[in-house]
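Check this:
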Amino acid sequence: GVATGDIQTDLRTDYMDLQPFAIAQLFQKIVEKEKSDLVLLGKQGIDSDCGQTGPMLAGMMGWPQVTFAAKVEVKDGGLLVERETDSGTETIQVKSLPAVVTCDLRLNEPRYATLPNIMKAKKKPVETLKAEE
């Protein structure tokens, strides 16, 4: 992430059963620690194809959520989100932040890391937290 322009990156490791509930609990701790007001997650994991982590995190935080976002705009202190549905798209307004948004692959165009940025990223510190924390 740092090689493609992210300002900060964290690696959280330790053995535990990493099912959606446990992952949502880890994210909750990180969000509370970082005092985030917007959390963007992928819509589903490729290992279990659940799509549960984002909605669980939103429930744990008591925050509104929008799933399957294909376009996100900041508007009047909130978000205007176009989301994918089985029958097309729909637009959802989140009136104010904080919020959790799960993102569809159409949301952005990927950036590719350049070799100099990969080398710089290797030198950046990575904070590691234990799952129990």
